[in-house]
């Protein structure tokens, strides 16, 4: 198979971790007879430096011309980087928001998974972890407060700022379907999260989710208020299979869930539209403090590449090979610094490795 | 001192826990020479049953005529209670929202505190708990998405729902001042939480907080994005002193923070306006499943009464007496069922008691 992959290396540790993901993909290509073509696409701070804006029309066109985009990370240190002196629509993140919207990437999948080998990094007690947890957050990504009308204006001499949260039934229906579809491939449970006791948009959300649920009689579903969900993620993460929610709630809850696993450097994500196209990126940020040191964890990006093989190219076997290789290196005791045993924990059989070495180890095992 | 206290017993466990708080207040009255007059006020499900609406104008007037209102909890089981068949504005919670707005209770204080004696209930690992944590969430309570214009309408035959998030500089300034004021009485650190990389309202929030901060040179302050804050509460709750944020973010984060302490049955809250008036209520809900069984934990309500003495009546000594009495009963080993040691934990010197007995024990010790 020939695959056209747009590559957004981005800022901070982005270029380092993307290099390792390409290394693993190329090994997959060799082994399974695929050809991966890469086109570099500028986005974020590096694009601002080169072009003055975080995402040019050419960059959008290049992304559209690709089958999928693999991304590292964008942005910098918000208090010291000059990018954050710019107007909001010129900052690195604005590039990402624009890309999501331009490509209609409405379905954001973020798995939050506890690795048996990394249990010690989980901030929760053993009795809460129990036999572990494995959730998929399905976040709506192109609607709600993020993309509603906004304005800042003087009202009777008083500065007033407004953002708008709008959803229509079609936007809700398509993401709800995605949520139930993925639940069918998992443990068949959907928790739909809203604030229906206060918001009109949440009441519509709930109504449409109920309609969609009728088409999935095998899936158990429930509604949960967002404040309660923020509690339940800490109290008992095991209860969740698929969490289905709107843009802003999904932003907050998916980050909380990823921290609850204790190993955000291991978590991938996919942003999908109605075609096979997808944008794949690690859940973590650009970590400017460790950029260029060769110590960043490339696994989340490598697993994002696996998601790309699975969702865009239907290469399930190849995706499995990557995921198994990751499990294998963990079992063999290799760790980047962020997932090293905590103080007091045994380090027997554990070896700390850098970014490139971790990429090599995984590539060797696919 | 003579104190006029409106009492909203409410639904579920509300009446039981409020009874114990009054018991403790009366004991304080005897000991320190104060007279507490109580006026019952209907709100929530019980008001719907009696009057058809969750809060009557008479009830609002009675609240306004009081120096302070002490509340238990309102609402029921959202899937089985008939209240949840009603239109949203007729449900129990609508009463609470209306009361907040009618009395201009814009400043919601929610302490999230780890009790040394209840460490075992904390869902976090010991190395994360460290020497414990003690935060105060200052949540804006009468603005934002909760009170913005909303509508559900057909747009080209498609049902569309909209909520509006508006803040003006004055609303932000007054809550920010409250946040910095309370930080001055604590560890002098404010974490202001927003989503300024996306929302106009958050950018205004950040700007005004920066202005207010200039008047508090002794207070260290920082801005944190809401998604990051949801992570940090799990990763390292010790870092926080005062968390200052808008209504919806505060709803989510304060519930997360209270769950992180592991003992939501111990956490009080205050909702204040520009006068000495306040509405005081436990952080937990109405727990309909255990209502009437005499096992609910009354401590959060008793501590809410202590907050009332402190904030509305300036009776600091008396508030201290209640807080110390609570610490004392914990030290002596008395526990309601929700804070009993976990499986595997030692129960030596621990005695399980019911709601009324817990009230007695605390009243005896004030
Ligand atoms: C960078 C930012 C705009 C973005 C978001 O909030 O969506 C990020 O936090 C994420 O979750 O992907
Ligand atoms: C009952 C509900 C409207 C309320 C809120 O969301 O404000 C509750 O969750 C709270 O936090 O006090």
UniProtKB/TrEMBL annotation, chains A, B:
Q: Which SMART domains match?
A: Iso_dh
Residues bound to NAD(+): 285-297
List the InterPro entries: IsoCit/isopropylmalate_DH_CS, IsoPropMal-DH-like_dom, Isopropylmalate_DH
| Record: residues binding Mg(2+) | 227, 251, 255
The name this protein goes by in its record: 3-isopropylmalate dehydrogenase
Location of the protein in the cell:
Cytoplasm
Organism encoding this protein: Roseburia faecis
Question: Required co-factor?
Answer: Mg(2+); Mn(2+)
What are the recorded Gene Ontology BP terms? L-leucine biosynthetic process
Record note on cofactor: Binds 1 Mg(2+) or Mn(2+) ion per subunit.
Q: Which purpose does this protein serve, as stated in its record?
A: Catalyzes the oxidation of 3-carboxy-2-hydroxy-4-methylpentanoate (3-isopropylmalate) to 3-carboxy-4-methyl-2-oxopentanoate. The product decarboxylates to 4-methyl-2 oxopentanoate.
Primary subcellular site in the record, as a coarse category: cytoplasm
In terms of SUPFAM superfamilies, this protein maps to:
Isocitrate/Isopropylmalate dehydrogenase-like
Q: Which UniProt keywords apply?
A: Amino-acid biosynthesis, Branched-chain amino acid biosynthesis, Cytoplasm, Leucine biosynthesis, Magnesium, Manganese, Metal-binding, NAD, Oxidoreductase
Q: Which residues bind substrate?
A: 100, 110, 139, 227
A Pfam family of this chain: Iso_dh
Q: Which pathway or pathways does this protein act in? A: Amino-acid biosynthesis; L-leucine biosynthesis; L-leucine from 3-methyl-2-oxobutanoate: step 3/4
Task: Give the EC number(s) under which this enzyme is classified.
Answer: 1.1.1.85
What gene is this protein translated from?
leuB
Q: Which Gene Ontology molecular function entries are recorded, alphabetically?
A: 3-isopropylmalate dehydrogenase activity; magnesium ion binding; NAD binding
Family named by the database record: Belongs to the isocitrate and isopropylmalate dehydrogenases family. LeuB type 1 subfamily.
């Amino acid at each position: 198979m020939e695959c056209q992959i747009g590559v957004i290396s981005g800022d901070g540790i982005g270029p380092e971790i993307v290099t390792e993901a390409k290394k693993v993909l190329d090994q997959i290509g060799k082994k399974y007879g695929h050809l991966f073509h890469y086109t570099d696409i500028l986005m974020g701070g590096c694009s601002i430096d080169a072009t003055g804006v975080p995402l040019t029309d050419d960059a959008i066109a290049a992304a559209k011309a690709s089958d999928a985009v693999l991304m590292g990370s964008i942005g910098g240190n918000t208090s010291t980087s000059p990018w954050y002196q710019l107007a909001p629509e010129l900052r690195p993140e604005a590039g990402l928001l624009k890309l999501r919207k331009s490509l209609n990437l409405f379905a954001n999948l973020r798995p939050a998974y506890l690795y048996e080998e990394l249990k010690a990094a989980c901030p929760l007690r053993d009795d809460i972890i129990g036999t572990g947890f494995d959730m998929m957050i399905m976040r709506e990504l192109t609607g709600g407060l993020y993309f509603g009308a906004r304005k800042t204006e003087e009202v009777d001499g008083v500065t007033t700022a407004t953002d708008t949260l709008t959803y229509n039934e079609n936007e809700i229906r398509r993401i709800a379907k995605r949520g139930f579809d993925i639940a069918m491939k998992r443990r068949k449970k959907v928790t739909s999260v809203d604030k229906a006791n206060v918001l009109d948009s949440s009441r519509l959300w709930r109504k449409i989710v109920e309609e969609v649920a009728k088409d999935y009689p095998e899936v158990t579903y429930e509604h949960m208020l967002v404040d309660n969900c923020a509690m339940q993620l800490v109290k008992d993460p095991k209860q969740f299979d698929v969490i289905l929610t709107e843009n802003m709630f999904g932003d907050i809850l998916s980050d909380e869930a990823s921290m609850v696993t204790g190993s955000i450097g291991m978590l991938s994500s996919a942003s999908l539209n109605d075609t096979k196209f997808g944008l794949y990126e690690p859940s973590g940020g650009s970590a400017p403090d460790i950029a260029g040191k060769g110590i960043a964890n490339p696994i989340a990006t490598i697993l994002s590449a696996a998601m790309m093989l699975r969702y865009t190219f239907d290469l399930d076997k190849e995706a499995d090979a990557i995921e198994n290789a990751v499990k294998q290196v963990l079992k063999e005791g290799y760790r980047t610094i962020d997932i090293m045993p905590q103080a007091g924990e045994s380090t027997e059989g554990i070896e700390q490795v850098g970014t490139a070495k971790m990429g090599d180890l995984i590539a060797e095992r696919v």
